[in-house]
Known about the structure:
Blueprint: H1 2-16, H2 19-24, H3 30-39, H4 49-60, H5 62-72, H6 80-87, H7 98-109, H8 113-116, E1 117-120, E2 126-127, E3 131-138, E4 146-152, H9 156-177, H10 179-183, H11 186-200, H12 203-217, E5 223-224, E6 237-241, E7 245-247, H13 251-256, H14 261-279, E8 281-283, E9 291-294, E10 303-305, E11 311-313, H15 316-330, H16 334-343, H17 353-364, H18 377-391, H19 400-416, H20 422-438, H21 440-457, H22 461-522
Helix pairs in contact: 1-9, 4-5, 4-6, 5-6, 9-11, 14-19, 14-20, 15-16, 15-20, 16-17, 17-18, 20-21
Amino acid sequence: MKRLARLLTIVIVVLRFGLDEVALSAFPQRWVRALVRIVRLGRRLDAPRGVRLREGLVRLGPIFVKFGQVLSTRRDLLPPDVADELAKLQDRVPPFAAATARAIIERTYGRRIEEIFESFEPEPVASASIAQVHLATLKSGPRFREVAVKVLRPGMLAVIESDLALLHQLAAWVERLSADGRRLKPREVVAEFDTYLHDELDLVREAANATQLRRNMEGLGLVLVPEMVWDLCRTDVIVMERMHGLPIGQVEQLREARVDLKRLARDGVTIFFTQVFRDGFFHADMHPGNILVSTVPATFGRYVALDFGIMGTLTERDKDYLAHNFIAFFRRDYRRVAELHIESGWVPAATRVDELEGAVRTVCEPQFARPLKDISLGHVLMRLFQISRRFNVEIQPQLVLLQKTLLNIEGLGRQLDPDLDLWTTAKPFLERWMSEQVGWRGLAERLRNEAPRYAQMLPGLPRLVHRALARRAEEGEHELLRQLLAEQRRTNRMLQALIWAALGFIAGLAIALAALHVGPLRA
């Protein structure tokens, strides 16, 4: 009944804000336009479509807001008015009351807010779908006193559980009713989304993610990550170092501040590929609302990462597979791309390599040697979907976050430098990474990392070898004894058979002689 009630709520919101009309208006077909006129009958939809879409998503809740945030970075796929409105979802979701935030903080720490902070701004500086942020000043602190206090929205768990239950049910229906649906693995994708959303509800996990990312990025010199005040980090509230900068989406303000936008765009690509291929641990929610550009003189022009609730991880096998695919694409080695898809099990083993190679070439070849502003990624994705459908490509749920982050990165690149060539910028980095992983440098690095373990194992190696040989000898002796006993049993069975045969022969002979002896006596 709860799911039915939630579904009814979604239908009511869709009709109230005219979201059905917004969705249908994206199709140019004549019969669709006629349907749009029909669905508008009896409804007053005076507000612009972008405003209605944004307000409808906010009314539907955090999962739908997340969806709008992802869409807001795809200006090449959306009309400008819709993209501008959805961009407001990144950090301008309607906040909850300051009194509620204060009550949550005081309940969490068991103290009045004045006992913790010297000053606390009741109006949030940012408000997102999961939490909102207030600026404050600590009475005493580590090396900084200006902090940002992130407070989880109240009642989030119940709302998310309700929407996720619907998504799980819809995914099951899709898999049951559609062959294409089964190939896309919607239930596994929803399960991944379920995990990440629940992770976002634990702010201590977010603080730990931030600490790990800060440690990884220390030597890169391109991105700043706020330090956490661990004494004040709880599940519902975390406190971190305040960062100063301009939102990366405010391109004109960045230009007026004399930020090098072209270099900023290239640095973003380097940061992303470093996190993915070097560390296997990457920020997976990189929409413009979560990124600032530092205006502090000592770190001017660097990225500032915020909001670490969703982080992606990749195994060594994932990284190796992705790197080989990227390199093959950069070199236009489409046959290798096809072979990698077959070797990894993404497509059935019986797939003809030459057919898959030709299909990939048809989609990708026209895109190379063109600036980013001229590439229609939406068109490419549509063509690749057609190919995946033809070759039964299996969607990999563990890479969903990476695919989403790639879309965000491209969206940021379009805003900062429309002439950025993503492929040309990333190719040297990936070739260097491959050299370090596969070449002599990679071997030396792995030996260096394993040296402490080898040093611990070497003294005990002779004893382990002796034990293994002795065990093998014992096993050999046991096997020989087993074989001898089996042979003895076979010999015994043969002897028993011979004895019984001899006894039978003697008995038969005795009976025959007795019969001959009795015969003459009767005569």
